[in-house]
Amino acid sequence: MALLHAMARTRRRSVALVATFDHGTGAAAEAAAGLVAREAARLGFAVVQGRTAAPSTNEAGWRAERWEFLTSVARDVGGVIVTAHTRDDHIETVLMRVLRLAGARGLAALYAASAITRPLLPFSRDEVGRYAAGAGARWMEDPTNESRAFLRNRVRRDLLPALREVRPAIDYELDDIARRAAAVRSDVERYAEHIASRRADSDALTVDAARLTRHSRAELSLLWPAIASRIGVAMDWRGTERASAFTMQGVVGARMPLSGGWEIARERDRFELRRAKRSPGQQSRLPLAPGARWDAWRFEPAAVAQEGADAWVAQLPLGATLSIRGWRPGDRMRSGGGAGVRRRVKRFLSDARVNGTNRGLWPVVLADDEIVWIPGVRRSDAAAVRPGRPGVLYRCELDRR
User: Fold this and answer.
1) Which pTM was predicted?
2) How far apart, in whole angstroms, are the C-alpha atoms of residue 15 and residue 79?
């Protein structure tokens, strides 16, 4: 409401409209949105109101719904979003990201380059409140601001006051962290723009492998989120750590899934950030027959194999229905004979140094409903190669190109 009055006094002609959003959390939220609409109309502004269709129960959900609405409205009118974030909001955000062990990208907080304009960022919450009172603005206090169920409220009401008691300069120190992080973030984004190029035939990005692999793991943890952001992909810290490790492993032909249906693929001379190909593990079973393919795995009849042949060859039982499917969490296979211990397939894959990136794409072979073979990794007793025992021999080959 302070921003609304300030814009009415100083930038009236630049206001396309006022947007207000009801998060559907109850009577207070509905009343607040109504107050904004009435006050904006009284000041002579066009107003658009939004309301959630399915109320969320947490801060992240409310924030996502609100920004989706505001972004849509700004796009419709060809404008930019202007918000009333204050210096206090910024300091709280930096501290919360420190607590979450964020890197420079996150620690930049509200200083990060953005299409959003925040004219009140230099001012404290108290200064903005005094301005609102002096301008005759009417506002409502959000009752959820009193609840310590929310992290920001605990930071605002408990943690920051305690820190200020023992470290009076904490606000300035957090602000300095954000300014330095914003500078690092800006430099990294310029470099990411230099080394990553968009493929003309898709929304995929390609990055020269020689340039990327010369960086340390710490540098890669800064680079990958900046690269991904160029096509609107957000990487959390887990994805960033995995992408950094994946880059340093350098296995040509390997793929690493990211959240949101994206993946990083290593080609001979480049890395690609692209829409994920449909994983065979998401498909139903595939009958095992000569020439059967499961992504990069190909199954062919094998010649007579010696006893103890490697795990790329298996002697499968006659009379059983043989099929291939993707590994699934919780899958088990017997490690010995018919009464052997059933161990998790994940453990066999881990023992064979198959990392999490490739594990989700690895096939298993079933005889009826029993897993008997993890190609290249392990066979159960039912698929062990034993000359003279009835069975059908198959060899699996993995194309690593």
Assistant:
1) 0.66
2) 9
